[in-house]
Design goal:
Blueprint lengths: L14 E3 L12 H9 L8 H11 L6 E8 L5 E7 L6 H12 L5 H14 L8 E6 L6 H9 L3 E11 L3 E10 L7 H42 L5 H11 L4 H8 L3 H15 L4 H9 L11
Antiparallel strand pairs: 1-4, 2-3, 2-6, 4-5, 5-6
Length: 295
């Protein structure tokens, strides 16, 4: 896949390997770790990025967090975005990065330089690389304006790790201009928390992949086994299969609570199932398994 606005990157502003046993490690309350773990694989895929920002806020204020997946030479995939009320345009900025600027990121060279070392590392002790890039390090004017100047970002710190030997996961942490460049103690704190963040993002990524595969399977089986549903009814089914409550479903689809309840009851009646558990059981049952109870 080509990148029309990209040319070869210059040397990275600075990257280094995260030590296995960092000298200084903040005492993270158990409830904060539990809050982060609770967001892994959640139906709202962006929740984990928001929780990473909350985790860091105690020691290192960050404005934004974007998590990317890089595989091969193609464009990266945006896994999650988190924004502390800075600009609601972050998804658009991330899209511009994915479509136009990713090859200009100095983290590309860092990933290439550490690929072999990362392949040799164990999943329990991954080879974690940190890459730091300030706004003034970015030479491409459009890249600098859209990804740094417009959202008022002073610098970006990327936490890089190779997952399953095939794809790099990059947790990009963006520092606002109001806080200036990160100090050495702040960098040391992020470095100490990097192993926790990496393992959490790996689990989240795996959960999202499995969830996506399972969702595709269930929707395929629904198309084969059930009656035709309208596009709106399919939207409701997707939300139900993701485990959303009626209130969450209504908010996501822009429905009133009463309308969401009506849609849900109509779909269950149309499919001949008594409720959510019966729907999932029916779709998970293999073809030809005999009479599958739908009530």
């Amino acid at each position: 896949m080509t990148c029309p606005d990209c040319s070869p990157t210059s040397a990275p502003a600075g990257h280094w390997v995260c030590p296995a046993n960092p000298a200084a490690s903040p005492e993270v309350p158990l409830w904060q770790v539990a809050a982060l773990m609770g967001k892994l694989g959640a139906s709202d895929r962006h929740a984990v990025a928001e929780e990473i920002l909350r985790l860091l806020a105690t020691w290192v204020p960050m404005a934004q967090c974007t998590i990317f997946s890089f595989e091969g030479a193609g464009r990266p995939r945006t896994l999650a975005v988190g924004d502390r009320a800075r600009t609601r345009a972050l998804p658009d900025i991330s899209q511009a990065y994915v479509q136009r600027f990713y090859r200009l990121d100095g983290a590309q060279l860092a990933m290439q330089a550490h690929h072999q070392a990362a392949l040799k590392a164990s999943p329990q002790q991954p080879h974690i690389v940190l890459h730091r890039q300030a706004a003034h390090d970015v030479q491409h004017p459009d890249y600098r304006q859209i990804c740094y100047e417009w959202p008022r970002v002073a610098e970006r710190l990327a936490i890089l790790s190779l997952h399953e030997g095939r794809r790099w996961l990059s947790v990009n942490l963006y520092r606002g201009l109001e806080h200036g460049l990160m100090t050495e103690p702040e960098l040391a704190t992020v470095q100490a928390l990097a192993p926790l963040i990496v393992q959490a993002v790996r689990l989240h990524y795996t959960g999202q992949v499995l969830s996506g595969d399972l969702m595709a399977l269930l929707l395929d089986r629904l198309a084969l086994r059930g009656p035709a549903l309208s596009p709106r009814e399919l939207d409701v089914v997707r939300a139900l299969l993701q485990g959303l409550s009626t209130e969450q479903l209504a908010e996501r689809l822009g429905l009133t609570l009463a309308s969401a309840q009506t849609y849900t009851k109509r779909i269950y009646r149309k499919l001949g199932v008594a409720g959510h558990k019966a729907l999932v059981a029916w779709l998970l049952a293999p073809e030809g398994a005999g009479s599958v109870p739908k009530r």
